[in-house]
Amino acid sequence: MSTPVEIFDTTLRDGLQVEGVTATVEDKLRIAEQLDHLGVHFIEGGWPGANPKDIEFFARAATDLSLTTSTFVAFGSTRRPRGKVDEDQTLQHLLDANTSAVCIVAKSSDDHVTEALKTTLDEGSAMIADSVEFLLAHDRQVLVDMEHFFDGFKANPEFSFRALEAAVVKGASHVVLCDTNGGSLPHEVEDIVRQVHAHVGNDVVIGIHCHDDTGCAVANSMAAVRGGARHVQGTLNGLGERTGNANLTSIIPNLQLKQDYTCLPEGRIERLTVVSHRVAETLNRAVDPQAPYVGSSAFAHKAGLHVSAIARAKDAYEHVDPAAVGNGTRFVVSEMAGRATIQMKADDLGIELDGPAINGVIDDLKRLEHEGYHFEAADASLELLMRRAAGWQHDFFEVESMRLITDELGDVFNTEATVKVRVGDERHVFTAEGNGPVNAIDTALRRAVGRAYPALADIHLTDYKVRILDGGEATGAVTRVLLTATNGERDWTTIGVSANIIEASWRALEDSVVYGLLHAPS
Ligand SMILES: CC(=O)SCCNC(=O)CCNC(=O)[C@H](O)C(C)(C)COP(=O)(O)OP(=O)(O)OC[C@H]1O[C@@H](n2cnc3c(N)ncnc32)[C@H](O)[C@@H]1OP(=O)(O)O
Ligand SMILES: CC(=O)C(=O)O
């Protein structure tokens, strides 16, 4: 039978301690719902009383949040040095938050007691004992985060054990060993957790809380589980103070898919990718594409040899089935593609390509990417290139000529485009002004062909990105333009590359319009 390991998510507390990220009360409520949907055991909501936002959040959570799987936790600290528990504001705020469980941070390193708190070791241990006793007397489940545990233990294990005992003896349900500065390494963590386990036995759940300052937070958390920890604290996508907290989106599958531990209820680990992305979206911070398990590139294959092998054996270059975490396999078409990649892409798009056509696509791709094209980022241009290789030519319109004029009138620049276009047997000449050259050409082209293709009215450009490819050439540099468009049902991106920014823009624009007409809803 597999061993249960509790997951304690602190995205809403420690996760928000990273610079550059903030969340509204509404955001925090939405994230808590997502964490419950994922099925973590504990959701730490924040520090009630620390700021008005967290006060409002805990008040709203009591009425607006209905959790079905997770236990909601308020975070705070032990009482202040030389203070009384029943007069301590932090402890009072914890009670006011009205959660069934609370987590308090306690100093477990002698140095921090004497230097940061400026008090004695006796008082340091009494602060823990009194606080646990007080909260328990008010019917709270008490988890204790033993701050700086590993650094403290290395310097003075006797005091760190004393701090632990103060919590355990008074009835804490969990003692969570924190690598607060994130400087420990996996072999140290495993060894120290083993010693703690031997010391406290199974009277209390041992937890682990790691930071990623050495890039080892995930490995350290797993080492702790090997050493006897059965409760792991971390955040989704590894958000957190400085370099981040231990990343639960890696730890959960590492424990549950690769070892005999159960972290989430049956059927929930498949929600990992979508929850990770929803939480990131809510915090306006995209998931790193290369994030293990949940990143968009986690199962994306670019090298021709890899794709060729996967076509023959699905798991040839995948360490787990992506579906197990709700992710999926993707094939990236680029200059590194071989025949297998192009064949799979053609099958996906329903384009019939024979051997010579596949070779033609590969030759075009490699040549164009060498010139600066980047087809991974331009799905629509890639599809058009493959269709052309299959012998297709669009007959929506034919551009006879195009002229652009820009005048400076006082401080104002005016741009005007004239396009001459054939649509079937008809010839159209249209002029349009725009707030820049691309806008002027786009408007003139739409006027010229719009009557024949009403679907064009639903196509809107949503993004226009320009990148200089060889900065050394200054204003003579090659320019790459990426245009993203939508018709409300699908989005697509096209590309153009040229030393002339207008030409690069036009290539991307023409592909964009052609692709939009080709896929216009019927
Ligand atoms: C390792 C961690 O990440 S723990 C979580 C840390 N999170 C945060 O700090 C975010 C929220 N914090 C805050 O809003 C504020 O710091 C507050 C409201 C908690 C405290 O604010 P202030 O009272 O102004 O104190 P300040 O921020 O300067 O912190 C120092 C005080 O905390 C006390 N303190 C620090 N750690 C502890 C502890 N583990 N137990 C009890 N008291 C503690 C110090 O003794 C000091 O008190 P003193 O000024 O009476 O000597
Ligand atoms: C408690 C906590 O966040 C830490 O020690 O890192």
Automatic annotation (TrEMBL):
List the molecular function annotations (GO) for this entry. Answer: (R)-citramalate synthase activity; 2-isopropylmalate synthase activity
Pathway in which this enzyme or protein is active: Amino-acid biosynthesis; L-isoleucine biosynthesis; 2-oxobutanoate from pyruvate: step 1/3
Taxonomic lineage of the native organism: Bacteria, Bacillati, Actinomycetota, Acidimicrobiia, Acidimicrobiales
Matching CDD domains? DRE_TIM_LeuA3
| Pyruvate carboxyltransferase domain: residues covered | 5-270
Record's protein name: Citramalate synthase
Record field: catalytic activity: pyruvate + acetyl-CoA + H2O = (3R)-citramalate + CoA + H(+)
Q: Which UniProt keywords apply?
A: Amino-acid biosynthesis, Branched-chain amino acid biosynthesis, Isoleucine biosynthesis, Transferase
EC number(s) on file: 2.3.3.21
Where is the secretion signal located? none
Which GO biological process entries does UniProt record here?
isoleucine biosynthetic process; L-leucine biosynthetic process
Family recorded in the similarity comment = Belongs to the alpha-IPM synthase/homocitrate synthase family.
